[in-house]
Write a structure and sequence with these properties.
Its main location: membrane. With about 450 residues, the protein is mostly helical. The chain is globular. The chain has one domain. Helix 10 runs antiparallel to helix 11.
Length: about 450
Amino acid sequence: MGSAATKAQVPLTEGPIGKTLFFFAMPVLLGNIMQSLNGSINSIWVGKFLGESALAATSNTNNIMFFLLSTIFGIGMASSILVAQNVGAQDLKQAKKVVGTSATFFLILSLLITALGIIFSSDIMRFMQTPDSVLPLATIYANIMFLGIPFTYAYSFIMTILRGSGDSKTPFYFLIICVILDIILNPILIFGFGPIPNMGIAGSALSTVIAQFITLICLVVFLYKKQYFLRITKAEFHLLKLDLPIVRALVFKGIPMGLQMIVVSSSGLALISLINSYGAEATAAYGAAAQLSNYVLMPAMAIGAAVSSMAAQNIGANKWDRVHKTTMTGIFFNFSLTGFLVIIIHLFNREALSLFLPSDSHAITIGMEINNITLWGFILFGITFVLSGVMRSAGSVTAPLVITFTALWVIRTPAAYILGNMYGIDAIWWSFPIGFITAVILSLLYYRFGNWKKAKMM
């Protein structure tokens, strides 16, 4: 019975690799695009109607949240890979143990991060040299977002487990619900409606938290009514206890993956701290350009996530020939999709930036220069997402961390400060392609010559 139920959930180990990867990745990609679109619409409301200082506040806050939440992001990735490997091996009992243990562990960590975020958010923003005009708005926005972290990450955790088990469609359907709710609530809470007061930037943060909370409740109800095969039933509540071998795997594999995200986010904090020193216009321009680069990264992130789930299931099923073919197919898809988006944004550079910034703002000129220099590098950087996803799916988590640290902290961040000090703000943006090229070269070398295939999750 259990074997048959599991078998029905393993489409990633069978069928044509290109077709299987494409149809698994598309809902992930569309979901990521919708999330970015939602963030962009929120930024349009904030930037157009609340001003550049408010937009700069959200940019600073989002970087802080990314930094603090990275500590639990790796736990989610580790649990997803463990689930995928066990589903691929058709070991339903162990997969459920992973879900139960990681859910409890994940909740504890998210509550801890919420407390730390609320206590230290303003201190971190001061450390980032956030302009005085931006600091009060950023503090209000951050505190509300941190209060919603347990709901946000419970929601994200369930989505990750679903994808690890081979289901990318259900997360997409519920992302649609979340995005629609956020889009509807944003202007209502920002400007007020009827008995609802005008909340300004606080309303933008609150709309996101409420939308994710409602979606989380709907998703949990749906999965239990559908009798999702990895749900924890009343008779299985004992699985919510912390299983020490699984906890060890989550910690020793999850922490390096979380640290990789911290390396990325802390590098971003170092850059935005440098950019803040050039004034609110530069910060707003970087925030608007970052909104567009999020779209450019969407295909690579989606393909990387899809490749990771697909590779993990095939590793669990001991189908290594499919693992390598999945990698090559993922790289091809990345070049095609990411390259297409880069061309589109280059063709409509000013018009795209004008969505987030006043049309007469000098920040648009700065943003156009950022895009002209950085966007093409994201095509190459997408290869790193694919290769890292495959290597992590086997349990090799240290090498991707070292590669990311080298590319961003040893190469990109020092280059940004050196170039900025020597040649001014326009030279800072060249640090992006320099760092991306470094990451691609190191990732390709380790994939070809490294011993990542011998790694184990447990």
